[in-house]
Write a structure and sequence with these properties.
TIM Barrel; two-stranded parallel sheet
Length: 466
């Protein structure tokens, strides 16, 4: 508890002087990142204020980072998913851009298929390494904007690139200048920013980028990349892990306009989503994510969750099609053969399913009691119950009312004799040692046996005769 014992001593965040340091050996911040132990969460107890941008937007990396965690998509599948992104983001373009690899014929074919759709949003952008030969791919594809990998921590500069800070930054600035000369918007991806020397490397680089941008009169974008998921949303946490301070410092000391700042996070410590929305609140306009959160290792921030959060934070539906979220889930399962965990929020087959009898009893009385919102209206997913020994007669009644589409006048009460007979059979199954849920097929058969008066509704909604 030593690191958090001074919580009552919060103070105003004070600016520091930024100047490029070029140590002979990398500074791996071992006090915070011992490697042989769990990383430390450090606090300086200084606060920065909420400072949201004028506009919250989303950007997509499903076809870049999202393809680094699964078998690659075919060009046709990418075109299908791009269609979903367009519909989910709406005509106003909540999902503003989508980035693509450009290295293979398949990559370029996917870009062409998506481009043929003629959509304004998401805008197609590229992604390249900080290598001039890669830049030729961007010019060949005639893209307006490209991401450029500009790794910023000593872990990457010294240990991966085998350079020092001065060498790396000069090379980054050279490729950025090449992009500006061609009139292409560079988006600098500050890889591993949450393990970087902020005032000795990150800020000096960003400040030079902003001067370049001003001289060229072309916007340079900054993407803050929490590559290993180390970001912390807690007020009073220290740089380089503090998401509020990263965003605040890039805006107020780095000179990055809010509308040109993005956050890209990973979920290694279960903080990906919280960090992303925190970045919004402290001044970052764009949050980068992927469909279903697919991304390297533990994944990126799920776009579908960010869409829901956007509506919650702003009260503005922005023309988004939230029911499209369920279509996306079905496409991943049927076309891409992805097994979505049943309890996965918004998309899992049982995300609106209860097994508790007391919950089912509440749902019978009023669906708002145990439903996060009108899931049928917003997500095209009705509430449901899974029948087990914990469901109770209320669960049986709710299942029947739901699966037979019985309206308020026709709905069956949990005290109906037929319901009690069905529930008694279910109890006997579990008393005999059953450990699996009662299947829908079994439930339909029990309805035929004990509730013959509902046979008409059964024919319309259930399976045919056994």
């Amino acid at each position: 508890m030593a690191r958090i014992k001074e919580f009552r001593r919060f103070r105003t965040y004070r600016r520091k002087t930024a100047s490029l340091k070029n140590p002979a050996e990398p500074n791996l911040l071992r006090e915070d990142f011992p490697f042989v132990e769990v990383p430390r969460i450090d606090f300086d107890f200084a606060l920065v204020p909420y400072d949201p941008p004028e506009e919250f937007v989303l950007t997509d990396t499903t076809f870049r980072d999202g393809q680094q965690s699964r078998p690659p998509y075919t060009p046709r599948q990418i075109a299908d998913l791009f269609e979903f992104l367009h519909r989910l983001g709406g005509e106003r373009g909540l999902i503003r851009q989508s980035e693509f690899f450009l290295y293979t014929d398949k990559d370029r074919k996917a870009v062409e298929l998506c481009r043929e759709k003629g959509y304004r949003y998401p805008e197609i952008t590229g992604w390249i390494r900080a290598v001039k030969k890669d830049f030729a791919l961007v010019k060949e594809m005639e893209l307006r904007e490209t991401g450029i990998l500009t790794s910023i921590s000593d872990y990457h500069i010294y240990l991966k690139l085998n350079k020092n800070r001065h060498q790396a930054i000069e090379e980054y600035l050279s490729i950025v200048s090449t992009a500006l000369e061609a009139g292409i918007v560079p988006r600098c991806h500050l890889e591993d920013i949450t393990r970087a020397d902020f005032f000795g490397c990150v800020l000096p680089f960003v400040q030079r980028l902003m001067r370049l941008s001003e001289d060229a009169r072309i916007p340079i974008k900054i993407r803050a990349c929490d590559t290993m998921g180390y970001g912390i949303s807690y007020p009073g946490a220290s740089l380089p892990r503090s998401v509020p301070k990263i965003i605040h410092t890039l805006v107020h000391e780095g000179g990055v306009p809010k509308e040109r700042l993005e956050w890209h996070g990973h979920n290694d410590f279960h903080k990906g989503f919280a960090n992303a929305t925190t970045a919004w609140l402290y001044g970052c306009s764009a949050i980068n994510g992927t469909l279903l959160g697919f991304g390297e290792r533990t994944g990126n921030t799920p776009l579908e969750a960010l869409v829901i959060e956007y509506v919650g934070l702003t009260g503005d539906s922005a023309g988004v099609q939230t029911r499209c979220i369920s279509e996306i889930g079905r496409y991943f399962e049927k076309e891409l053969k992805v097994r979505i965990p049943p309890n996965y929020p918004f998309l899992g087959s049982e995300c609106n399913t209860t097994r508790a009898g007391v919950h089912a009893d509440g749902l019978l009385k009023d669906k708002e009691i145990y439903s996060i919102f009108d899931t049928e209206l917003i997500l095209d997913q009705p509430m449901d119950v899974a029948i087990t020994d914990k469901s109770g007669a209320a669960g049986v009644a709710f299942w029947i009312n739901t699966h037979l589409s019985l309206g308020p006048r026709e709905s069956i009460d949990k005290r109906h004799p037929g319901i009690l007979k069905i529930y008694e059979w279910i109890r006997s199954e579990y008393e005999s040692g059953r450990v699996t849920s009662i299947s829908d097929e079994e439930m339909f058969e029990l309805v035929r046996l004990h509730l013959p008066e509902y046979s008409k509704a059964l024919k319309s909604n259930g399976p045919g005769p056994a």
